[in-house]
Amino acid sequence: MNYLITGGSGFVGSLLCESLVEKGHKVINLDIIKPSSDSVKFYNINILNKTEVDRIFVENKIDIIIHSCAEVPITKSKDFFKVNLGGTKNIIDCFLKFKIKN
I want to staple 71 with a disulfide (CB 3.0 to 4.6 A). Which of 49, 51, 83, 92 is the partner? Predict the structure, then answer.
């Protein structure tokens, strides 16, 4: 299976990437932070960039999306709601547009 993991460089996302690769799956990591492992295809893209997020779906066959990308309050970011809501909307839009099943 081909997985897209948003936030695949974070704590939860990196564990998911590692586990899926070990099971023989193809993994695409969408994040703004470079992953510690080179075992996945990495896109350094801000989830708010709809054009770039769309490009990932055009360039790759994706069977399953695991959306673990989030701005957390501890970062004291002013973009907390923008990233979490707008980014999720971009992923849902692509999920529907490209008819991803899971």
Answer: 83
